[in-house]
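User: Teach me something about this protein's shape.
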Amino acid sequence: MGRSMTASDILAGQHDLAGTLTFRERFNSAPTTAYLADCWMVPFQHAQPIRLQAAFKGQRNVAGLWWCATNQRHVGFESWCERDQLMSLDFDPNVIVISSQPFRITLPPSLPQHSHVPDYFIRRGDGSAVVLDVRPDARVKPADEDVFQATKDLCASISWRYQRLGALPPVLWANLRWLAGYRHPRCSREPIATILHRPS
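Assistant: First, the predicted structure itself:
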């Protein structure tokens, strides 16, 4: 577990805040702030979202919850593009758990934007961690690129991978969308699955 910093520490300027994380642990709604270097083994895949999803009339983007077969629970998304990538991650056999908006990371002071909340955190079967942002290529501005690069550099400092994902190809999206409906436990027929998985 990372070391929690007090408000007096921050106000006194005793710490370099670039790369500090604020997050909510699974069974604790109170936010924790800790050094990034101390957080490499924090189970962010089980963390609560650091911010609430907004949903209101006239909202430009679409937010919601996707039932994730990998997690066996709902995971949040804040756009159709995020939902599609979440659906794709749910089909990746190397991904063992996914969380949305896992933490807020403090960015270097040279950037106009002080902090950033990545879209997803995934833990892979080999134990490695990947931090993801989802943004269609056409909507990535130079300022966004700076934020993504700074986030990537900070993640690399503790051997986390970082990636920015765009829109899925239409044919892949259509096929995944069709197959996804059959991944819920209500569609599971264990005797049939056993037969299908039996070596020939």
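Now, about its shape. The chain has a mean pLDDT of 85. Strands lie at 20-23, 32-35, 64-68, 73-77, 95-100, 104-106, 115-116, 120-124, 129-134, 161-165. If you'd like, I can walk through any region in more detail.
User: That's plenty for now, thanks!
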